[in-house]
Each structure stands twice: as C-alpha cells, then as structure tokens.
Design a protein that fits this description.
204 residues; alpha+beta; 9-stranded antiparallel sheet; 4 helices; 18% helix
Length: 204
C-alpha cells in the first residue's frame, strides 16, 4: 500500500507554523550546543519537515498489511541476508536511524536553509534542506514527491558526526514500499576505515 498523505499537507508543515513538536531529547540537541553559537539563517517562523511524523503516518497506512522483507547487511564487502516478517518491532528498528535525523522540532529553526524546486526529468517536486553550521548532525534532507499524485517517492538524508576521534558519515534513503537503506562510513583516528550497508527491501 502506498502513502496516501498528500504533498500539500507537507508544504503546510514547511510554509506555515503548525503544531508544537514534542520536546524529546535527541542526539542533534547535543550537536547544536557549542560555546560559540553559529549564525542562524532562513525563516524562523515555519517548521521543517518532520521525519518522525512522516514515519508515524507511514506505519498507520501499512501496519495491517503482511510484508516479508529481505534484509541485507554488508560490512567491508562481507554480505549476509535474511527474510524477516514486518511487524512493529522491525519497523521501529528500521526507522530508528531516520528518526535520529529529525529536524522537525522548533529548536532547529534557522539552522537549515530551505529550497523547494521541481525536477522535470524525474517529474518530482523537492523539499530540500541543508545545514548552515558545521556541527549539526543532519547535513542534508531531501524529500521528493510525485508532481502528479503528490505522493512522497523518496526521503534522502546525509549525516556526519565525530566519535572517538573518527568521522562517521551516513547516507540514508527510504522509498515507500521499495527500500530502507543506510550506508555508513567510519574513517580517521586509529584503525582501518569501516564501510557498512544495511538494506531492507520490500521488493526482491
């Protein structure tokens, strides 16, 4: 089943002030706390697209459907795979890396530049956010929606953080009823680089 939520609802969340977001602690809150605060930019009266709200809505539209997913995990070229039935516990694990990138809370207003544009080649409309400070965990967020049906076709996110002297970057992508994908790379510090790929495929 595909997402039934329409893009205008997403635009309303972006262009106008909307409901209060939950003041839950997150990894990004720590990332934005520095002794010298970077300069904010952009509109600080609107709210940004919420990944958490989006995945909550996705689950409401599919939790009654039976899916068996193909899980693929690859670490430095070594691959393992398994078939898993989709339930609430698995959905929580799959969405967790995406939830950690959420910028929907009002505390993030002004920390991201926003651009909305259309791609005639792919026939999609994009909501595009980029971080304006180097210490923000979520670096880029791009929402692509079908220009005709207004359904979200993909969510693409890039992150970066420093951990134990190493730089950890991620590229995350979700395509409804197709794939969850998280690519991670660790480099720097002592020890060899580590590349990880985690996928959950709806179609295989």
């Amino acid at each position: 089943m595909r997402l039934r939520s329409l893009l205008p609802l997403l635009f309303c969340c972006v262009l106008f002030a909307c409901k209060e977001k939950q003041n839950s602690a997150s990894a990004e809150e720590k990332a934005t706390a520095t002794s010298q605060e970077p300069q904010k930019t952009g509109d600080t009266t609107a709210t940004y697209f919420s990944v958490i709200d989006y995945f909550n809505d996705q689950w409401k539209n599919r939790n009654a459907d039976a899916y068996t997913l193909l899980k693929i995990e690859e670490i430095n070229g070594r691959r393992d795979s398994a078939y898993l039935p989709l339930d609430s516990a698995l959905w929580a694990r799959m969405r967790a890396p995406f939830d950690a990138t959420d910028i929907g809370d009002k505390k993030f207003l002004g920390w991201y530049s926003f651009n909305m544009f259309t791609d005639e080649t792919t026939e999609t409309t994009h909501l595009h956010y980029e971080a304006v400070a180097d210490n923000l965990f979520t670096r880029k967020l791009d929402i692509a929606a079908d220009m005709v049906t207004n359904r979200v076709k993909s969510v693409y996110i890039e992150t970066r953080r420093k951990q134990d002297g190493r730089v950890v970057t991620q590229k995350l992508q979700y395509m409804p009823d197709r794939i969850f994908q998280v690519q991670s790379q660790e480099s720097g510090g002592s020890g060899a680089a580590k590349n990880t790929l985690l996928e959950y495929r709806f179609k295989y």
